[in-house]
Amino acid sequence: MTRSVLILGASGRFGRACSTAFSEAGWQVQHFDRTHGNLMDAASGVQVIVNGWNPAYPDWAKQVPDLHAQVIAAARANGATVVVPGNVYVFGEDTPSPWSENTSHRAKNPLGRIRVEMEAAYKRSGVSTIVVRSGDFLDTEASGNWFDLILTKDLAKGRFTYPGKTDVPHAWAYLPDLARAVVGLVEKRDVLPVYADIPFSGYTLTGQQMFDAVNRAVARSVQLKPMSWWPLQLARPFWPMGRCLLEMRYLWDTAHRLDGALLESLLPDLPQTPLDVALVEALPSGLVERNVHPNQVMTTGRNPSLT
Protein backbone atom coordinates (compact mmCIF):
# COMPACT_ATOMS: atom_id res chain seq x y z
CA MET A 1 0.00 0.00 0.00
CA THR A 2 1.23 3.48 -0.86
CA ARG A 3 2.26 5.44 2.21
CA SER A 4 1.38 9.10 1.77
CA VAL A 5 2.16 12.17 3.85
CA LEU A 6 1.00 15.76 3.44
CA ILE A 7 3.53 18.38 4.53
CA LEU A 8 2.20 21.73 5.68
CA GLY A 9 4.85 24.45 5.61
CA ALA A 10 7.24 22.48 3.40
CA SER A 11 9.31 25.60 2.71
CA GLY A 12 9.98 26.09 6.43
CA ARG A 13 12.68 24.44 8.51
CA PHE A 14 10.74 21.55 10.03
CA GLY A 15 8.58 20.91 6.97
CA ARG A 16 11.58 20.88 4.63
CA ALA A 17 13.51 18.43 6.81
CA CYS A 18 10.50 16.13 7.17
CA SER A 19 9.85 16.25 3.43
CA THR A 20 13.39 15.02 2.80
CA ALA A 21 13.24 12.32 5.48
CA PHE A 22 9.90 10.91 4.34
CA SER A 23 11.05 10.89 0.71
CA GLU A 24 14.22 9.03 1.65
CA ALA A 25 12.10 6.49 3.56
CA GLY A 26 10.01 5.75 0.46
CA TRP A 27 6.88 7.72 1.31
CA GLN A 28 4.80 9.56 -1.25
CA VAL A 29 5.20 13.19 -0.19
CA GLN A 30 2.74 15.95 -1.00
CA HIS A 31 3.19 19.63 -0.20
CA PHE A 32 0.33 21.98 0.63
CA ASP A 33 0.25 25.71 -0.10
CA ARG A 34 -2.34 27.31 2.15
CA THR A 35 -2.42 30.49 0.07
CA HIS A 36 -4.05 28.63 -2.81
CA GLY A 37 -5.19 25.13 -1.82
CA ASN A 38 -8.03 23.63 0.18
CA LEU A 39 -6.68 21.65 3.13
CA MET A 40 -9.64 19.31 3.39
CA ASP A 41 -9.25 18.34 -0.25
CA ALA A 42 -5.46 18.08 -0.07
CA ALA A 43 -5.63 15.78 2.97
CA SER A 44 -7.96 13.32 1.25
CA GLY A 45 -6.39 9.88 1.19
CA VAL A 46 -3.20 10.69 3.14
CA GLN A 47 -2.23 8.72 6.22
CA VAL A 48 -0.16 11.45 7.85
CA ILE A 49 -0.23 15.26 8.04
CA VAL A 50 2.98 16.96 9.16
CA ASN A 51 2.03 20.34 10.53
CA GLY A 52 5.04 22.53 9.84
CA TRP A 53 3.03 25.75 9.84
CA ASN A 54 4.67 28.30 12.11
CA PRO A 55 3.51 31.93 11.91
CA ALA A 56 5.75 34.71 13.16
CA TYR A 57 5.62 35.24 16.94
CA PRO A 58 3.46 38.39 16.81
CA ASP A 59 0.83 36.49 14.79
CA TRP A 60 0.55 33.48 17.10
CA ALA A 61 -2.41 34.71 19.14
CA LYS A 62 -4.45 35.46 16.04
CA GLN A 63 -3.42 32.62 13.74
CA VAL A 64 -2.34 29.57 15.76
CA PRO A 65 -5.75 28.48 17.13
CA ASP A 66 -7.46 28.67 13.74
CA LEU A 67 -4.64 27.03 11.77
CA HIS A 68 -4.49 24.07 14.10
CA ALA A 69 -8.27 23.77 14.22
CA GLN A 70 -8.17 23.40 10.43
CA VAL A 71 -5.57 20.66 10.71
CA ILE A 72 -7.56 18.81 13.36
CA ALA A 73 -10.69 18.96 11.20
CA ALA A 74 -8.84 17.69 8.12
CA ALA A 75 -7.19 14.86 10.05
CA ARG A 76 -10.49 13.82 11.64
CA ALA A 77 -12.29 13.80 8.30
CA ASN A 78 -9.61 11.63 6.71
CA GLY A 79 -8.54 9.43 9.61
CA ALA A 80 -4.99 10.80 9.39
CA THR A 81 -2.30 11.08 12.05
CA VAL A 82 -0.98 14.58 12.72
CA VAL A 83 2.67 15.27 13.53
CA VAL A 84 3.22 18.46 15.53
CA PRO A 85 6.70 19.87 16.23
CA GLY A 86 6.59 20.53 19.95
CA ASN A 87 8.95 22.93 21.68
CA VAL A 88 10.03 23.69 25.25
CA TYR A 89 7.90 26.83 25.65
CA VAL A 90 5.12 24.91 27.40
CA PHE A 91 7.13 24.19 30.55
CA GLY A 92 7.83 27.70 31.79
CA GLU A 93 10.88 29.05 33.57
CA ASP A 94 9.99 27.67 37.03
CA THR A 95 9.70 24.01 36.02
CA PRO A 96 12.81 21.97 36.94
CA SER A 97 14.37 19.89 34.20
CA PRO A 98 14.83 17.30 32.79
CA TRP A 99 11.61 17.86 30.86
CA SER A 100 9.80 14.73 29.75
CA GLU A 101 6.41 13.60 28.46
CA ASN A 102 5.26 13.59 32.10
CA THR A 103 6.37 17.13 32.97
CA SER A 104 3.54 19.57 33.69
CA HIS A 105 2.95 22.44 31.28
CA ARG A 106 3.29 25.44 33.59
CA ALA A 107 4.13 28.26 31.20
CA LYS A 108 2.56 31.58 32.22
CA ASN A 109 3.87 33.89 29.50
CA PRO A 110 1.62 34.60 26.47
CA LEU A 111 3.60 32.64 23.86
CA GLY A 112 3.97 29.70 26.20
CA ARG A 113 0.25 29.70 26.99
CA ILE A 114 -0.62 29.70 23.28
CA ARG A 115 1.48 26.56 22.84
CA VAL A 116 -0.04 24.93 25.92
CA GLU A 117 -3.56 25.57 24.66
CA MET A 118 -2.71 24.46 21.12
CA GLU A 119 -1.36 21.11 22.32
CA ALA A 120 -4.35 20.69 24.63
CA ALA A 121 -6.66 21.15 21.64
CA TYR A 122 -5.05 18.17 19.91
CA LYS A 123 -5.30 16.10 23.06
CA ARG A 124 -9.02 16.89 23.44
CA SER A 125 -9.75 16.27 19.76
CA GLY A 126 -9.33 12.51 19.79
CA VAL A 127 -7.34 12.81 16.54
CA SER A 128 -4.24 10.63 16.32
CA THR A 129 -1.43 13.06 17.18
CA ILE A 130 2.32 12.73 17.65
CA VAL A 131 3.99 15.72 19.31
CA VAL A 132 7.75 15.43 18.76
CA ARG A 133 9.30 17.89 21.20
CA SER A 134 12.74 19.37 20.72
CA GLY A 135 14.97 22.28 21.59
CA ASP A 136 16.38 24.93 19.23
CA PHE A 137 17.21 23.80 15.72
CA LEU A 138 20.55 23.23 14.05
CA ASP A 139 19.68 23.40 10.36
CA THR A 140 21.63 22.37 7.26
CA GLU A 141 21.11 25.82 5.75
CA ALA A 142 20.62 29.35 7.04
CA SER A 143 16.93 29.58 7.90
CA GLY A 144 16.58 32.41 10.36
CA ASN A 145 17.00 30.36 13.54
CA TRP A 146 18.91 31.35 16.66
CA PHE A 147 22.01 29.46 15.61
CA ASP A 148 22.53 31.12 12.24
CA LEU A 149 20.86 34.47 12.92
CA ILE A 150 22.52 35.24 16.27
CA LEU A 151 25.14 32.76 17.49
CA THR A 152 27.14 32.35 14.28
CA LYS A 153 26.19 35.45 12.30
CA ASP A 154 29.56 37.12 12.90
CA LEU A 155 31.84 34.09 12.69
CA ALA A 156 33.51 35.55 9.58
CA LYS A 157 34.48 38.52 11.77
CA GLY A 158 35.88 36.19 14.44
CA ARG A 159 32.96 36.44 16.87
CA PHE A 160 30.59 33.84 18.32
CA THR A 161 27.66 35.62 20.00
CA TYR A 162 25.77 33.95 22.83
CA PRO A 163 22.46 35.34 24.16
CA GLY A 164 22.54 33.87 27.66
CA LYS A 165 24.65 32.58 30.53
CA THR A 166 27.43 30.42 29.12
CA ASP A 167 27.33 27.88 31.98
CA VAL A 168 23.62 27.04 31.57
CA PRO A 169 22.59 23.86 29.68
CA HIS A 170 20.38 24.44 26.63
CA ALA A 171 18.55 21.94 24.39
CA TRP A 172 19.38 21.66 20.67
CA ALA A 173 18.12 19.43 17.86
CA TYR A 174 19.83 18.67 14.54
CA LEU A 175 16.95 18.84 12.06
CA PRO A 176 17.83 15.81 9.88
CA ASP A 177 18.00 13.65 13.02
CA LEU A 178 14.73 15.07 14.31
CA ALA A 179 13.03 14.42 10.97
CA ARG A 180 14.27 10.83 10.88
CA ALA A 181 12.80 10.37 14.35
CA VAL A 182 9.48 11.71 13.06
CA VAL A 183 9.44 9.12 10.27
CA GLY A 184 10.32 6.33 12.67
CA LEU A 185 7.54 7.31 15.08
CA VAL A 186 4.99 7.67 12.30
CA GLU A 187 5.83 4.16 11.11
CA LYS A 188 5.05 2.92 14.64
CA ARG A 189 1.88 4.98 15.04
CA ASP A 190 -0.31 1.89 15.39
CA VAL A 191 1.32 1.07 18.74
CA LEU A 192 1.33 4.64 20.06
CA PRO A 193 -1.45 6.16 22.16
CA VAL A 194 -3.94 8.41 20.37
CA TYR A 195 -2.06 11.42 21.73
CA ALA A 196 1.69 10.82 22.04
CA ASP A 197 4.05 13.43 23.52
CA ILE A 198 7.60 12.31 22.72
CA PRO A 199 10.65 14.41 23.64
CA PHE A 200 13.70 14.34 21.37
CA SER A 201 16.78 14.84 23.53
CA GLY A 202 19.19 15.95 20.80
CA TYR A 203 22.21 17.70 22.31
CA THR A 204 22.32 19.37 25.72
CA LEU A 205 25.04 22.02 25.69
CA THR A 206 26.08 24.98 27.75
CA GLY A 207 26.99 28.10 25.85
CA GLN A 208 30.65 27.38 26.55
CA GLN A 209 30.33 23.85 25.18
CA MET A 210 28.63 25.09 22.03
CA PHE A 211 31.36 27.73 21.62
CA ASP A 212 34.08 25.11 22.04
CA ALA A 213 32.40 22.82 19.50
CA VAL A 214 32.06 25.64 16.97
CA ASN A 215 35.74 26.49 17.44
CA ARG A 216 36.62 22.88 16.66
CA ALA A 217 34.63 23.12 13.41
CA VAL A 218 35.79 26.46 12.01
CA ALA A 219 38.98 27.12 10.09
CA ARG A 220 39.99 30.06 12.29
CA SER A 221 39.53 30.58 16.01
CA VAL A 222 36.70 32.85 17.12
CA GLN A 223 36.06 34.78 20.31
CA LEU A 224 33.06 34.44 22.59
CA LYS A 225 30.94 37.57 22.84
CA PRO A 226 27.79 38.07 24.94
CA MET A 227 24.74 39.25 23.04
CA SER A 228 23.44 42.67 24.01
CA TRP A 229 19.69 42.69 24.65
CA TRP A 230 19.51 46.49 24.91
CA PRO A 231 18.63 47.08 21.22
CA LEU A 232 15.59 44.82 21.68
CA GLN A 233 14.65 46.65 24.87
CA LEU A 234 14.82 49.97 23.05
CA ALA A 235 12.80 48.66 20.10
CA ARG A 236 10.24 46.92 22.29
CA PRO A 237 7.60 49.71 22.31
CA PHE A 238 7.23 49.77 18.53
CA TRP A 239 8.55 46.36 17.33
CA PRO A 240 6.24 43.41 18.19
CA MET A 241 8.86 40.80 17.31
CA GLY A 242 11.28 42.40 19.74
CA ARG A 243 8.75 42.09 22.54
CA CYS A 244 8.29 38.41 21.73
CA LEU A 245 12.02 37.70 21.67
CA LEU A 246 12.40 39.37 25.05
CA GLU A 247 9.51 37.30 26.38
CA MET A 248 11.40 34.10 25.53
CA ARG A 249 14.77 35.33 26.79
CA TYR A 250 14.43 33.25 29.96
CA LEU A 251 15.20 30.04 28.02
CA TRP A 252 18.80 31.18 27.57
CA ASP A 253 19.25 31.58 31.33
CA THR A 254 17.16 28.60 32.49
CA ALA A 255 18.99 25.29 32.71
CA HIS A 256 17.09 22.62 30.81
CA ARG A 257 17.36 19.38 28.90
CA LEU A 258 14.85 17.03 27.32
CA ASP A 259 14.57 13.45 28.55
CA GLY A 260 14.71 11.17 25.51
CA ALA A 261 14.14 7.86 27.32
CA LEU A 262 10.71 7.32 25.76
CA LEU A 263 12.01 7.90 22.24
CA GLU A 264 14.94 5.59 22.87
CA SER A 265 12.57 2.84 24.02
CA LEU A 266 10.45 3.24 20.89
CA LEU A 267 13.31 3.64 18.40
CA PRO A 268 16.39 2.07 20.03
CA ASP A 269 18.32 1.92 16.74
CA LEU A 270 17.61 5.48 15.63
CA PRO A 271 20.83 6.94 14.18
CA GLN A 272 22.05 10.18 15.67
CA THR A 273 24.64 12.47 14.20
CA PRO A 274 27.73 13.34 16.27
CA LEU A 275 27.73 17.00 17.27
CA ASP A 276 30.90 17.86 15.36
CA VAL A 277 29.43 16.42 12.15
CA ALA A 278 26.16 18.31 12.66
CA LEU A 279 28.01 21.58 13.13
CA VAL A 280 29.98 21.10 9.90
CA GLU A 281 26.62 20.90 8.14
CA ALA A 282 25.05 23.76 10.09
CA LEU A 283 27.86 26.26 9.58
CA PRO A 284 28.54 28.18 6.34
CA SER A 285 30.75 26.02 4.12
CA GLY A 286 33.33 28.75 3.67
CA LEU A 287 34.03 28.89 7.39
CA VAL A 288 34.38 25.25 8.40
CA GLU A 289 37.49 23.16 8.78
CA ARG A 290 36.20 19.90 7.31
CA ASN A 291 38.25 17.56 9.47
CA VAL A 292 35.01 15.67 10.04
CA HIS A 293 33.47 14.39 6.85
CA PRO A 294 29.72 15.12 6.72
CA ASN A 295 29.02 11.54 5.60
CA GLN A 296 30.76 10.06 8.64
CA VAL A 297 28.91 7.01 9.99
CA MET A 298 26.34 8.05 12.56
CA THR A 299 26.07 6.62 16.04
CA THR A 300 22.97 4.86 17.31
CA GLY A 301 21.10 5.38 20.52
CA ARG A 302 20.64 8.60 22.44
CA ASN A 303 23.24 11.29 22.20
CA PRO A 304 24.49 11.68 25.77
CA SER A 305 24.16 15.02 27.49
CA LEU A 306 27.38 16.92 27.17
CA THR A 307 26.82 18.77 30.42
Detailed description of the structure:
Pfam families: RmlD_sub_bind. The protein is α/β, with parallel strands linked by helices. The chain contains 11 helices and 13 strands. The chain has helices spanning 13-24, 39-42, 60-78, 110-125, 146-151, 175-186, 207-217, 230-235, 240-247, 261-266, 275-282, and strands at 4-8, 28-32, 48-51, 81-86, 129-133, 136-138, 159-162, 170-174, 195-199, 203-205, 223-226, 271-272, 299-300.
Give the structure's gist in a few sentences.
The chain contains 11 helices and 13 strands. It has helices at 13-24, 39-42, 60-78, 110-125, 146-151, 175-186, 207-217, 230-235, 240-247, 261-266, 275-282, and strands at residues 4-8, 28-32, 48-51, 81-86, 129-133, 136-138, 159-162, 170-174, 195-199, 203-205, 223-226, 271-272, 299-300. Helix 3 packs parallel to helix 4 and helix 7 (207-217) crosses helix 11 (275-282).
Descriptive keywords:
six-stranded parallel β-sheet; 35% helix; single chain; 307 residues; 17% strand; globular; alpha/beta
Q: Provide a count of the helices.
A: 11
Order of helices and strands: EHEHEHEHEEHEEHEEHEHHHEHE
Extract low-pLDDT stretches.
293-297
**Counted beta strands:** 13
> For the terminal residues, how far apart are their CA atoms?
45 Å
Strand content: 15-25%
Subunit organisation of the chains: single chain
The biggest sheet, with number of strands, parallel, antiparallel or mixed sense and barrel status, is: 6 strands, parallel
Q: Helical content, roughly?
A: 25-40%
Strand sequence of the main sheet, in spatial order?
A: 2-1-3-4-5-9
Rg, Å, rounded:
19 Å
Which structural class do the helices and strands define? alpha/beta
User: What is the molecular shape?
Assistant: globular
For the residues shown, what is the average pLDDT? 93
Domain RmlD-like substrate binding: 4-147
Protein name: Sugar nucleotide-binding protein
Organism: Parasedimentitalea maritima
InterPro entries: NAD(P)-bd_dom_sf (IPR036291), RmlD-like-bd (IPR029903)
